[in-house]
Amino acid sequence: MRKRNRRVRAVLAVTSAAVLGLAGCDALGGDDDPGTSGAGARRAKASQAPLWDTSPASIAAVGDSITRGFDACTVLQDCPAASWATGASAEVNSLAVRLLGASKAATHSWNYAVTGSRMADLAGQMTQAAAEKPQLVTVMAGANDACRESPSAMTSVAAFRSGFEDAMGTLRRSLPKAQVYVASVPNLKRLWSQGRTNALGKQIWKLGICPSMLGDADALDAAATARRDTVQQRVEDYNKVLKEVCAKDARCRFDGGAVYDFRFGTDQLSHWDWFHPSVDGQARLAEIAYRRVTEPVS
Predict the structure, then answer these.
(1) Could you list the mean pLDDT of each consecutive 10-residue stretch along the chain, which spans 298 residues?
(2) For residues 271 and 267, what is the distance between their CA atoms, to the nearest angstrom?
(3) CA torsion 222→225→231→232, rounded to 10°?
(4) Closest CA to 141 of 59, 238, 222
(5) Distance (Å) of CA 207 to CA 68, 71, 114, 202, 204
(6) How many Å apart are CA 160 and CA 145, to the nearest integer?
(7) Which letter, b or e, does each residue of 42-70 get, where b requires 16 or more Cβ atoms within 10 Å of its Cβ?
(8) What is the pTM of this model?
(9) Euclidean distance between CA atoms 217 and 150, whole angstroms
């Protein structure tokens, strides 16, 4: 009987300890899934937060003459007000205006693109852009790497890749969580095809606009065709680099070749040089960017 009592007391002691243990867990806020409350819940929530915000609160733009609105308003001059990325023109309705509204875009968007710049110049622009601490950085660069005096002078694909990686690294060292929208390099051969129908445009081209593609604009012989095809292939190679490097960054979105695929017509080309985007062309670029930036996270 004494042994039996000892066994009963032992069972009661174990049961009491288990009950007290459960009560203690409940008192600390625990439950069957420790990841749904307290620090666990915060970690779970953070891990589920999307890496892409479709409504960034500030924008900085880097790149070349297209982003500066070159020849959109006046012959052979920048017109940043008409920039697809940050311009204030109501006709363009830039990406910044679409995302922020006209009033906020005036104080929370910055354009550090430089006419004539190439991929090697992008890191320096990124440094300037990062100083503003933008939530979104737009990139459109590469046309000038292909638009050289001749195909042999074009930036190599390896150097182009290195330049873009360097630019992204520069941004990430300062702003690891900034989002990046990367536009593809336009189809230069299609721009030549459209612009060569205008006599005035061809005269402007002779001043030195993209000679590797636009030089001897009316020549259709085998050598001229091979030259243009070489430039076009380099543009496609650049776009492949932009896609691949961007894909390695969780907060980077490439346009999927949308700018390259866009068919610029005469209304979308500057009537000063028949090569750079007109005000209407800048508006189309803004539309493309806005669709990609605001695309829901899948």
Answers:
(1) 45 38 34 44 49 96 98 95 98 98 98 98 98 98 98 98 98 98 97 90 90 96 98 98 98 98 94 94 98 92
(2) 8
(3) -130
(4) 238
(5) 19, 14, 19, 9, 5
(6) 8
(7) eeeeeeeeeebbeebebbbbbbbbbbbbb
(8) 0.83
(9) 14
